[in-house]
Amino acid sequence: MKEAKKYKTTCCYCGVGCGIVATDLGNGKIHVEGDKEHPVNKGMLCSKGMNLHYTVNDKSDRLLYPQMRMNRSMPMQRSTWDETLDRTAAIFKTFINKYGPDSVGFYVSGQCLTEEYYLWNKLMKGFIGSNNIDTNSRLCMSSAVVGYKLSLGEDSVPVCYDDIEESDCILVEGANPAWCHPIIWRRVEAHKAASPNVKIITVDPRRTQTASASDVHLQINPGSDVTLNHAIGRILIENDWLDNDFLKNHTDGFEEYRTKVFEKTLTESAEICGVDEKSILKTAKLIANAKGFLSMWTMGLNQSVIGVNKNLSLINLSLITGKIGKAGNGPFSLTGQPNAMGGREVGGLANMLASHREIANPQHRTEMEEFWGGNKISDKIGLTATEMFKSLEEGKLKAIWIVCTNPMVSLPDSRMAELAMKNAKFVVVQDISNRADTIKFADVVLPAAAWAEKEGTMTNAERRISYLNKIVDAPGEALPDAEIICRFAKKMGWGAKFTYENFSEIYHEFTQTTKGTNIDITGVSYELLKEKTIQWPYTNAEEKVKSSIGTKRLFQNGEFYTPNKRAKIHAVPDENLSEKLSQDFPLILLTGRIRDQWHTMTKTARVNKLNQHLPIPYVEIHPNDAKKRNILEEEIVEIKGKRGDVKVKAKITDEVKQGTCFLPMHWGRVLGNDFGRANNLTSNLVDARSKEPDFKFSAVEVTKY
Ligand code: SF4
């Protein structure tokens, strides 16, 4: 037995990016505790983070060796890496030769490490010659990406966590950080406890734990965020609670915005939102009086058919008050997954290239073609997450390679997703766990190394890059994802461009793509990241200043990343484009996370302590709606929508608004047991620009079962 040894690393669950000290106990097992020296969490961990070692130590569900089958009616057979990748490469080449490069696709994950994310994109965009690579981050933050690009000129989070302690008004809209970003929330709570004049406003159709702890809870009707934000904007303008110098010198679009927000009176807006006028007035006043105004949001804004407009309408409030680029101020999109930000850096979306370059920009394509020295980069935007599965269903996309994500549970409209997988000609699933429901549809299964079994980097919600240590060996024949990609690339004939001595070389290659861009991290290396975390940008010049920790805050000089360096205020329409309610489906279904589970529960459901919080799925329904339907507490009910149905227990609570109900997103076993499978019901509408699904507004009916 080896001697116990401590390693610094980063939690692999959410975008908060907490530092962890993991102890290798010497027997293949580890123990974790919060890293007291880490600038994000200062030793704290939430329930998921503090139980992370159980998911590493329990290897009972791990995929241990490659498997394949010749057709789906046959059982999976153990295979070797060489045989499996030879066959996979042969099938990919056949489809590419016969139907063109757009006949294949990669569906990856915001949980991939930056190095892996970079390589998948290099392979698909730079060598296969298609842009058909998208990520499950499309389902959670692509509306924020477009919102930042349109308003600030680039997908760049302007703030940092230290702004929490510098703010005195925090507006949380469409988010429940008390459950979903717990360490951020603990910092907010601690700040308020130390400075009682700090005010928290929460905008959410549900009375969540975050809302309950807030000074103001605007319990709006689902889909009315833009109307609310415009109403706040109108009050700020009417009272001249603006930063007129900032507006004049650093923004465009204010006049159109003024006209737009004056289209509705406060009374009309309050009625549409279902909240009282006084609370909207109070909110506007708190924002106006704040020295530090921080807005935070997640899926309530992003996962919407009008997600981009919701983002823009909220960012507008920071711009018209000039509360951006200063300590304690700015719009802060909280990312859900641990490396959603890293994925954005490497161009992990179907419309992007490395370092915030765009597929649509010919110069950007040329730059990356020259850098990679591979094939011509297609000018056709690739298929986004839901488009990819639609294309499989229609038979146009022939092969899909799914990495580190479980779309059979996480995609909206699960039955369409199942049909897509059944129609797919060839499916590769690369995962750590045999619990991933998507495996049931696979032709090839590849075992991947998990967190703590490989090294690499991730970037959290505040642009902070962290190094993750390899602490224990992967079980069986499981390999780090980056190694699997390189082995496959060699089988495809591009070995020379995918040969690296170590993971550090892959990271270095990626950092060179950032040179001269707004996310320049040419000064960042593994050596540096082993000493400290870094917030981008961080150039070679900064690397020479040994005390530098990178860039805490962007736009401090009032110059934005737009061509004329001015931020753009967008006069967005405030209509709700979600599916319409009807007599048959009169209730609005909202979906979301619960405190102790992560995504599709393949990891967290293995930890007894985490299952104790809310062990079975339930639908929250308002007492008046339950009474009208004779539904009793804990009874099994059936929820029906246009796309499917689901059975689940009823939880009667006035924490949801009358006319709405809420179902956790995590459950979703396929093939027979659909108990609580939320995505049987969710809408397949997507935002026109971000292509992010409308997870939080589906028309349903709930009845006794
Ligand atoms: Fe991990 Fe997020 Fe919890 Fe921090 S807040 S310990 S990153 S799950």
From TrEMBL:
The keyword Oxidoreductase applies. Coiled coil: none annotated. Its EC number is 1.9.6.1. Its cofactor is [4Fe-4S] cluster; FAD; Mo-bis(molybdopterin guanine dinucleotide). Keywords: 4Fe-4S, FAD, Flavoprotein, Iron, Iron-sulfur, Metal-binding, Molybdenum, Nitrate assimilation, Oxidoreductase. One of its GO terms (molecular function) is nitrate reductase (cytochrome) activity. Residues 4-60 form the 4Fe-4S Mo/W bis-MGD-type domain. Belongs to the prokaryotic molybdopterin-containing oxidoreductase family. NasA/NapA/NarB subfamily. This is Periplasmic nitrate reductase. The lineage of its organism: Bacteria, Pseudomonadati, Bacteroidota, Cytophagia, Cytophagales.
